[in-house]
Model the fold of this input.
Amino acid sequence: MQAKPRLLTILDIVCVVLMIIATGMVFLYAPEEAVMGNVQRVFYFHVSSAWVGMLSFLVAAVAGIAFLRTARMKWDVVGLASVEIGMVFSFIAVIMGSIWARPIWNTWWTWDPRLTTVTIMLLIYAAYLMLRAGIDDPNRRARFGAVYAIIGVLSVPLTFFSARLFRTIHPVVIGTNQPGSEGAFDMTPRMLQTFMFSLFVFTLLYADLLWHRVRLGELANKVEQLKMKVMG
Amino acid sequence: MAVNRIIEKQEEATQVEGDTQVEEHSIVSQDQKFERSPVSSFLGSIWAIVWKDLAAELRSRELVSAMLVFALLVIIIFNFALELDAKTRATVTSGVLWVTFAFAGTLGLSRSMAMEKDRGCLDGLLLAPVDRSAIYFGKSIGNLVFMLIVEIIVLPVYSILYNTNLFQPGLVGVILLGSIGYVAVGTLLSSMAVETRTRDVLLPILLFPVVIPVLIASVKASTGFLQGLEMSEISPWINLLIVYDVVFTAVAFMVFDYIVEE
Done:
């Protein structure tokens, strides 16, 4: 077993420090939003976690393609790690969104395209984990997982597009806003800085967690092999 | 691949023959080989698999009959669950139909693959010297045929039971497009689900979140046709269905090899 890499330790520390700075920026540096008040501060971490969720499912699909091409178990570990992290962050985004939606939309939940898509996305990756749990052969588990990760990531944009053909009320802060969305606002420079910084920190945090999870997965595979050796 | 290799070998064999015998003979035999080109032998093996499924079904009748009875039961349950009076019917008909097709579809998909697995037929298919994707397309077309049979019977029954006219060319087109998308993904996922411990339970869990775009688009487009909306309002949904069908058939074609690989 190899020792924890020095770089990973450094990354851990950097993440903790930056996370504290980001939290400080969200509460102290960013100005209070004129209409919505303090609850708007949830926006910075909400969008960042949603972004990490998307990114990690994309990474899982890319790892799936890489696994199918090379048949190296390493890519399977990356895929699984990324899906697990993505589920956690998507769930965090949903919870934070609900906290914001309660005062602004006057409801915890609504069947808006983004909300619908994120729910279906979570269900797809829950199915991914169940699929893996039902297969004993590691090689087959990796192949099926890779295929399902690819199919899942392809269906998400189509789900979003089809849900979007319905009316939407979710605000689009970046890019053009649709008429009828509630809770939209324009970002001041300070807000934009805080937002970009949060995005950066969360991406870094994702990389850090992925690294940890991949190491854990590789160790788990090793333990599995050793067990087989002892039993056999 | 295997077919190509066999043809290449045949070519080599005739080449040797051609050297010793008259030139013309080898040209004639090569022409014959070009007639049985890889494309037509590919289509031939797809047809063989479809035919096998249809023949087996024609004798046992266990798959379509189960799907059909199940579909009718679902419609009857909806009658009580939704109080399908004349007013609600106008808005929920396509929803009821698609939920029915989706549920009956999973039943058929999992049974069709389980039959291959249980009796060791899948191993036989895999041993056959045909391209793996021919197996995928063969099974898909077989499943599509079963689903369409169920739909063809359910539509008039629904029309009679609820006194609604469902015979519109547009609706039939939507049902065809929707079923293609559903079966394209369903066949792929059922061949995965059949290898797992949880099997039949797993298929709907794997399938439904992925086919949601098909279901949304089909329901919307069907409602549009039933309510006589203008084509400009329906066409985005039709386009979405076509895109889904193309994308997922292509992807399934590319990844099927990895699923049946041993």
